[in-house]
Amino acid sequence: MTAVQLARTAAELAALGADKGPRAVVMTMGALHDGHAALVRAARERVGPAGLVVVTVFVNPLQFGAGEDLDRYPRTLDADLKVCREAGADVVFAPSVDEVYPGGEPRVRITAGPTGAVLEGASRPGHFDGMLTVVAKLLHLTAPRVAFFGEKDAQQLALIRRMVRDLNFPVEVVGVPTVREPDGLARSSRNRYLSAAEREIALSLSRALAAGARRTGDGAKAVRAAAEDVLGAVLAPDYVELVDIDDFTPVAEDHAGPAILAIAARVGATRLIDNARLTITGVPRS
Prior knowledge:
Blueprint: E1 5-7, H1 10-15, E2 23-28, H2 34-47, E3 52-57, H3 77-87, E4 91-93, H4 97-100, H5 120-123, H6 127-142, E5 146-150, H7 154-166, E6 172-176, H8 196-213, H9 220-232, E7 239-243, E8 257-267, E9 270-280
Helix pairs in contact: 2-3, 6-7, 8-9
């Protein structure tokens, strides 16, 4: 196991790995866990021992709205470097805010469009514009052939794929399945904020997804209702929606085929999201 090289500036990053083979990037905001490690391992497997795996660690202020947890968001670089080393990364790029935005907040930004205005975008206005802006910058700075993102953030993944396609970025975007705890809770950096009692309540998200998945043969309405019944019995959800996999608009009640069951809820002071990709095979019962 070799040491991970740490780059703090774009110049330092550019000087690393110039003689390596294909390059992959995993973008994170730090506070890494097994879900992030799975992304790094997937990147390592894809580019092989001759390739270069770069992990970015940057808490992007553009993604946080008023009253959100920018200052509270954990910064754990030493622990993150250990996770990256054990998972097989070569380089960690951990720039400062001034390095990424040297002129202050950028005046020119990527706009997420209609898909960025629903679900998470409706709950967190401007979030996806900030996310896409920093992803675009980091794709330029890291210059990967392939980029890996988690499927837990399904709407984010869909928007990144759309940006790459619409703006002709020369990179392949790969989604990696959600990593879960043994009891079903999706891995998240925000899970550390949950008390023991709140963590038990948080399991209702994955249980709601499982309930919806059991009703795929009964039509879209039944899937959504089953998830709402489980989650609503414990929490007041921000949303429970069955949506198109590309534009995240609600699917019709007679929809057949792939869809994403997306849910969000606040558990105590912590906002959690989760989703499941399903295939609707049945039709609504009369």
